[in-house]
Amino acid sequence: MVERKKTAVGGGAVAGGGRRQGVRTWALRVGTSIMLWTMMMQLSSMPHVWQPRLTCFGGRGRDPNSTNYSILESKYPLESSKTSPPALIPRRVYKSNGYLLVSCNGGLNQMRAAICDMVTIARYLNLTLVVPELDKRSFWADPSDFGDIFNVRHFINSLRDEVKIVKSLPNKLDSKVTSGLFSMPPVSWSRETYYLNQVLPLIRKHKVLHFDKTDARLANNDLPTELQMLRCRVNYEALRFTPQIQALGEKIISVLRKNGFFVVLHLRYEMDMLAFSGCTHGCSDAEINELIKMRYAYPWWKEKEIDSESKRLEGLCPLTPEEMTLVLQALGIPRDTQIYIASGEIYGGEGRLAALKSVFPKIVRKEMILSSYELGPFQNHSTQMAALDYLVSIASDIFIPSYDGNMARVVEGHRRYNGFLKTILLHRKLLVELLDLYHEEKLSWDQFRNAVIEVHKNRIGLPTLRKAIPGRPKEEDYFYANPQECLSSPKTSKYQMDML
């Protein structure tokens, strides 16, 4: 009995000791966890420990010798709520001379170029820029705001070392708004001295200046290199599309890549383009009358009486889908190539694409890749739809515009910046002549094909100098099509020699 009692007591002591040891172990683990949590919180308050500085343009960021990178991986990374935001670059401290409000006009890429110009002007004049307003009165009547297309937070933060950008005017300036802002359009194609000598005094006087139009307002050539570099930084670094647009663009590109090589054809055979340019080649009498009626309906389209045929012979009209079919064949694009059509609704509908589809059956559009559910939020928002086409155009193996409008030129420049990716710049004036000779049976197919290849062998987006015309800046080569000050020496793309 005694032994059993001792054993029982001993067992209880062991059990009690075990419980005390368990408590000590538990307390140690809790203490360790609290210590680790405290360290994590302290480290998270120092973002430079976890994240590199937000890259800037030029010597402070992008490697000027690096030309080959993925647009989706390095140029436009999608934001995620699961990751910490990058560390903010230091803010530039300066005394602001006033506020600049801008109302951009035109389509997506006309406004994009204007935003780059306006940021540069604000930096040059030491102004505070209000996030730009976008055009809602154009043909498309798109109600999209800046934040519906571009990532506002990234736009503001990525440029904070250059210029202060705010979402709205401060309350103390409400009286300026209620009493009427001082508004004016800047003089087109002006040099930086115009803004310094004529615009800055107005801002100092009124404290707030509103540019009610912004398209093509800085000259192309002979601007200080630092201003040109800033225009590029805004265009290629700061103007990032929203995460929603980025995600859908990534999906389109992923689907196309899985199916192999793909060409983007920017086919500007759209009703508004034909009406605006007065180009009616290939249209029926009823269609011609409809286009003329539209041209007269918009008072800011100043040119009314237009000779379509003479414009076409001068190479000033977009090529028709039928003409583009022959040109693509002559350029050596294989029949089984995926051809992504980047455009709005083609004038004449699917019937107008019949010839193109008969020769190139793998015609693809975003509406064929994305579901109606995915595209639903973008419907009736032409600028957001154009943003999707823009992303696909930048990522394509070859980009071919049928007309050198704003999108074609801005995409051309972006592809040069991305490593001189292959962009076939059609010589429409010579092509129209060759097409007519071929249709009149004055050229055989082999003669036509050889001539097309010869004309375009040096028009594939390789390095070249912008054309400068002293005293006539509007006629110079467009800066955003060839931002030569921002481009490094190219590495030959694997696609540069595949065709032509």
TrEMBL record:
CDD domains: O-FucT_plant. GO terms for molecular function: glycosyltransferase activity. PANTHER family: O-FUCOSYLTRANSFERASE FAMILY PROTEIN, OS02G0726500 PROTEIN-RELATED. It holds the Pfam family O-FucT. This is O-fucosyltransferase family protein. The keyword Glycosyltransferase applies. One of its GO terms (cellular component) is cytoplasm. One of its GO terms (biological process) is fucose metabolic process. It is a single-pass type II membrane protein. It comes from Dendrobium catenatum. The keyword Transit peptide does not apply. Keywords: Carbohydrate metabolism, Fucose metabolism, Glycoprotein, Glycosyltransferase, Membrane, Signal-anchor, Transferase, Transmembrane, Transmembrane helix. Belongs to the glycosyltransferase GT106 family. Its main location: membrane. It is found in: Membrane. Pathway: Glycan metabolism. Signal peptide: none annotated.
